[in-house]
């Protein structure tokens, strides 16, 4: 996933290399490993080598929370977390940061032990009460905000009359849920309500009523990876007093 800028004010090139080995759980290793390399686009000089797995967790969670700040209800009090993998704690913390009225968090996972471990780890974070619940249908009905982070190929959450937003339009042709909906004739490309950038810029309306059920689907982008890597590099550079990493 390469990205670059030739702007004098943002002279960077970046590339992310990722491997996906779902069977790694059997040997107690993450299923995804990655590395991100940041270079100067004016000279080609390498600037930083970053753990892309960790970077992507933060980037994905922050993008989701940014979307929530525009699309979810401000008075949201209950969050449902579907999945208890590496991304789950990042998503929970990010959503609680933008929706501080959340006081209850339900965690569902196929393996209940993983859900319990996550609940024990985060119990009391931001003053919220964390609970494990094996009844997915029940907690979906209770959730103001539902965030999903699983590799499941089965349908976990069903919905009708949805208003769909994406982080960028590549999601329409790259994300399984949207591709499947398009192939079944359930969702057409022109029925996508907008992308996150347009909502943030005010060019598209986000939530317009309390009754709307809104779905935000994020696929990620090389451009956002580059911005994230620069933020990490800049923070390190500043913290080191301007010394080269």
Tell me what the structure shows.
The chain has 245 residues and is an alpha/beta fold. Helices cover 35% and strands 23% of the residues. It has 8 helices and 11 strands. A 4-stranded antiparallel β-sheet has the order 1-2-3-4. Helix 1 runs parallel beside helix 2. It starts with a strand and ends in a 6-residue tail after the last helix.
Quick gist of this model?
The chain is α/β, with parallel strands linked by helices and 245 residues long. It is 35% helix and 23% strand. The longest helix has 20 residues, at 52-71.
| Class by SSE composition | alpha/beta
Number of continuous helical runs: 8
Task: Provide the gyration radius in Å.
Answer: 19 Å
- What shape does the CA trace take? globular
Mean pLDDT over the residues: 90
> What order do the strands of the largest sheet run in, or round the barrel if closed?
1-2-3-4
Report on the biggest sheet: 4 strands, antiparallel
Helix content: 25-40%
